[in-house]
Amino acid sequence: MDKKTLRKEGIAILSLLSQQAKKKQQKEQLIHQLLFASKSWQAAETIGLVRSTAIELATLPIFTRGFQEGKRLVVPKALADKKMVFHEITPATVYEKSAFGIEEPNHHAPLLPAEIDLLIVPGVVFSTKGYRIGFGGGYYDRFLQDYPNQTVSLVFGEQLRDDWQAEKFDRPVNKLITDTFKKEVGK
User: Fold this and answer.
1) Cα–Cα distance, 182 to 177 (Å, whole number)
2) Cα(61)–Cα(187) distance, integer angstroms
3) What is the pLDDT of residues 30-64, one digit of tens each?
4) 116 exposed, middle or buried (CB, 10 Å; 0-12, 13-18, 19+)?
């Protein structure tokens, strides 16, 4: 199955799940608990993650927990050349909505990829081997090419599909954390 079709189906599944607020919240709580208990989270001092949209797994609890634990949190900002850079944020950070409807910070100097210990990588569809299909911009695919540290994706069981092939430029995440299983892949 081609990525465009899978992406469309994945977005439809996420949209449907977002309409089932109680079910989605229960799944999110389990995934958040598994993340916070993971060695990847506990060892990381600097964590990169996006501010989620309504259909995605909620990241606000991750921001809250990260600040409570004294973690350094960084959020991406998309650039015109289809690349992205991460900026450190605080609880007082002001965000602007991007053309994609994602909240981005617009301040501070960007961090080098190696400065981020753990990158929480979003996506629409995931294989059990850690490969992902994103929202179609290719920003994370480009960023992951030179990213040297740990990656994890937080995945609803409904997003897992193995009926597609990764392309040669795709990079799998190191770990998937889902509401159906916790599986480490790669490193």
Assistant:
1) 5
2) 27
3) 999 999 999 999 999 999 999 999 999 999 999 99
4) buried
Burial class, 91, CB count within 10 angstroms (exposed 0-12 / middle 13-18 / buried 19+): exposed
Q: Under 8 Å CB-to-CB from 169, ≥6 apart: which residues?
A: 141, 145
The total number of residues shown for the chain amounts to 187
Task: For 84-127, write each residue's pLDDT tens digit.
Answer: 999 999 998 888 888 778 888 877 678 999 999 999 999 999 99
Closest by CA position to 181, among listed 117, 130, 120, 111: 130
- This prediction's pTM: 0.93
Separation CA 73–CA 171 (nearest Å): 23
Looking up tokens 């392309």, which residue turns up? 167
C-alpha 74/C-alpha 87 separation (Å) is 5
One DSSP character per residue, 125-143 reads EE-TTS-EE-SSS-HHHHH
CA 78 to chain centre: 14
CA pair distance 74, 119, nearest whole angstrom: 9
Residue type at position 172: P
Q: Which parts of the chain fold into alpha helices (H)?
A: 3-18, 21-37, 39-43, 60-68, 139-145
Written as one letter, the residue type at 91 is: P
Encoding tokens for residue 171?
Answer: 């990079």
Report residue 54 CA to chain centroid gap: 14
